[in-house]
Design a protein that fits this description.
It contains 21 helices and no strands. With 582 residues, the protein is mainly alpha-helical.
Length: 582
């Protein structure tokens, strides 16, 4: 998932470059267009690399492996080298923002050599397949054929990227325009979660203004805006975790206030030497707290408040007299925490309209992962449906949903659950890993189905495979298992309901870890079904003759079967995680 996070960060940087293009369009406009076009290659390349990793990880090196690889190894390496060289040239073009005449010739020659290498790999894979069929089962080379197909797809993506860059720089055709980022388009968010955030924090700030205006003797001076100001910089998005987060923030305020006043009392004298010392201390303090904020996520909140409150105390007017420490910032923070807790308590006790009803982070996290699972179920169903001709357009929306769900899970782990069962953090994290894996695998299925066209129609060889009765049987079994795992995921919200679903599905609950492991094995992709599909594919290939691997029935079928087996493994992992966490 680290590479996927880098892709999301790169897309964020491309979106942020919108402002650079607005100021200097001629200098940065072409670069941004090229970067956005490169994202298409990176997204599909990552999904296919993940599929190759799964194939290598589960390879058993059957008898046909060595025979097959001896034939295709040299061409496989050649495709990898030529594709990498071509992509590297395209990256250099992105950095320059244009392609010079001699660079265009070099890129053209590299495109030709990449096409030659891809054709050689296609011929070698077909020869190797024919040789292995005579000596062993087609099942022995499913992973190897899948890897060859994805390498050909990589070469095709590199060639497409180079052709688009050359056509744009020569004026033959322009790259697709990059839309403005979401933050630059006026958008009103009336979702329940956003209304909940606005309502709770609005009431907290208003209540802080009222308490600060009235005051209380010398402890809380009247007309004090500090409580409301403090509430405005420690806004909370979720209910239930206010206590734990408030205590963490209180640590930051107390430490920042104490260290800031200590540095002020030691160095903030009224002379030029002290001015220089205070400036150096302020720089070092800011640098240290901000480095901690950005690079130590678990201490980010404390580091931010340390920097803010420490500099607030250090930045006061110099004095040659001793000043007594003040507790006002700490009192303001304590009052802000108390008011936030009161608002959360009222939100849970007072009935609110369904549209703005407040939810805990644990419920939102459970809802988020269930919605993602339903979406994945729809994607798998459509990708394996012989009646559906189109595929969805790939963006990074699901990656954003995964990041949101991950944050919700972290918030849920901080909830104070007095009367509820502890939040299953380990189970939630394990399920998130499997959901991410299923998402990337289904993306690879769609890339294969559309021949690499983002959001394009399914190609005819893929449709022929889907029409096989054995493939449709496998689809039905896979969807049934996905539904079964979806019902088991209810254990995050309600142990009793989820366990009843598990008991009904398996006819009882396993009593130990070993029994849970055996029970957790699904039968979505049967060996018998696989053998029948491979037999049909091998016969259709003999009749159709050789083609490029991305259009070859057998190669596409191998890629599809590998992806289905990967989804089945992820379903088994999710099922075992739930059974262990019961």
């Amino acid at each position: 998932t680290g590479l996927k996070e880098q892709l999301v960060a790169l897309q964020g940087a491309i979106d942020s470059a919108y402002h650079e293009v607005a100021v200097l369009p001629r200098r940065f406009g072409v670069k941004r267009l090229m970067l956005q076009r490169s994202m298409t290659l990176l997204r599909e390349g990552y999904d296919r690399a993940f599929s190759v990793f799964n194939s290598c990880q589960d390879e058993e090196f059957e008898s046909g492996h060595r025979e097959f690889m001896d034939i295709v190894k040299q061409d496989l390496v050649a495709v990898h080298i030529e594709s990498f060289k071509l992509v590297r040239m395209c990256v250099d073009a992105v950095l320059d923002g244009h392609i010079a005449g001699h660079e265009a010739k070099d890129i053209g020659r590299c495109v030709a050599s990449t096409r030659t290498a891809m054709g050689s790999l296609t011929s070698a894979a077909i020869r190797a397949k024919a040789k292995v069929f005579k000596q062993s089962s087609p099942l022995d080379i499913v992973g190897e054929q899948c890897i060859c197909l994805h390498m050909c797809a990589t070469a095709r993506m590199a060639i497409g990227l180079a052709d688009d860059f050359l056509a744009h720089c020569s004026g033959e055709r322009k790259l697709d325009a990059v839309p403005a980022p979401a933050g630059e388009r006026l958008k009103f968010d009336f979702s329940r979660d956003h209304l909940s955030f606005v309502l709770r924090n609005f009431l907290t700030i208003q209540l802080g203004m009222l308490v600060g205006a009235l005051g209380y003797h010398n402890y809380l001076p009247a007309w004090n805006a500090g409580i409301a100001c403090t509430s405005s910089i420690v806004l909370t998005k979720f209910t239930g975790s206010a206590i734990s987060k408030g205590l963490v923030r209180l640590h930051g305020v107390v430490l920042g206030n104490i260290f800031g006043q200590f540095m002020y009392g030691m160095f903030a004298w009224c002379n030029y030497v002290a001015y220089g010392v205070v400036a150096l201390i302020a720089f070092a303090w800011t640098a240290g707290t901000m480095l901690t904020y950005f690079h130590v996520p678990q201490s980010a909140s404390i580091a931010c408040l340390l920097g803010a409150y420490g500099l607030t105390q250090l930045g006061r007017k110099c004095s040659d007299e001793f000043t007594f420490p003040t507790m006002a910032p700490i009192i303001n923070m304590c009052m802000a925490i108390v008011l936030a807790l009161c608002i959360d308590l009222l939100a849970m006790l007072v009935p609110l309209p369904e549209g703005i009803k407040l939810q805990k982070a644990s419920k939102q996290a459970t809802k988020s992962i269930n919605e993602m699972w339903k979406s994945l179920r729809e994607v798998v169903s459509a990708a394996l449906d012989a009646e559906t001709s189109g595929t969805r357009q790939h963006r990074l929306r699901f990656a954003t949903s995964l990041a949101v769900a991950k944050d919700l899970g972290s918030e849920a782990a901080q909830e104070v659950r007095y009367y509820s069962a502890p939040w299953k953090s380990e189970l939630f994290s394990s399920l998130m890993v499997s959901v991410t894996s299923v998402w990337m695998t289904t993306s690879t299925i769609e890339h294969t189905a559309s021949g690499g066209t983002n959001g394009g129609d399914k190609i005819e060889p893929y449709m022929r495979i889907l029409r096989m009765p054995s493939v449709q049987k496998m689809r039905a079994e896979l969807l049934e298992e996905i539904d079964s795992v979806g019902s088991m995921m209810g254990v995050l919200a309600d142990d009793r309901v989820a366990m009843r679903n598990i008991a009904d599905h398996y006819g009882g609950l396993p009593e130990d870890a070993e029994a849970a492991k055996e029970t957790g094995e699904s039968k979505a992709v049967h060996a018998e079904t696989l053998a029948r599909i491979m037999l049909e594919l091998s016969r259709s290939t003999e009749a159709a003759g050789p083609r490029t691997l991305e259009e070859d029935d057998f190669s596409i079928g191998c890629a599809l079967l590998e992806c289905c087996r990967a989804v089945d493994r992820d379903l088994n992992a999710m099922r075992r995680s739930v059974l262990r966490a019961r």
